Amino acid sequence: MGRRETSIERLLHGIEGHIEEWRGRMSAREMEVQAHREQLLAEAAEREKLLAQAGGEKGDRERSFEEAAKEHRAAFIVHSEEAGKALEKFASEGARLVSVVPGSGSEGSGADIRGSWLVFE
Q1: N vs C: which end of the chain shows fewer Cβ within 10 Å?
Q2: Mapping DSSP to helix (H, G, I), strand (E, B) and coil, where does residue 77 land?
Q3: Is the pTM of this model over 0.85?
Q4: In the chain, pLDDT over 70 holds for what percent of residues?
């Protein structure tokens, strides 16, 4: 009949409610992160295309990002605000890029995105 919940049952139901709330927030955050990642990848692809077009000859021939970057001695990279500040500091000090070292384990995203260490002198 009308059995009352014990304090342990009430506590358990409260905890379960908090867990469900947390799972909902985490799921929403993961979807937001994925949307941002896709937006960044699309923007990077568009910039790569524009760079290739800008460095291309007058014809319709599109060159690869690598060719355009070599000719103009510039490359667009996706990075955090913190990394951008560090790169600005290196540039202001006249640092020179001496090496690019491929990062390990940077293939987990499924996209053709890789991370590397840029070594400056």
Answers
A1: N
A2: coil
A3: no
A4: 77
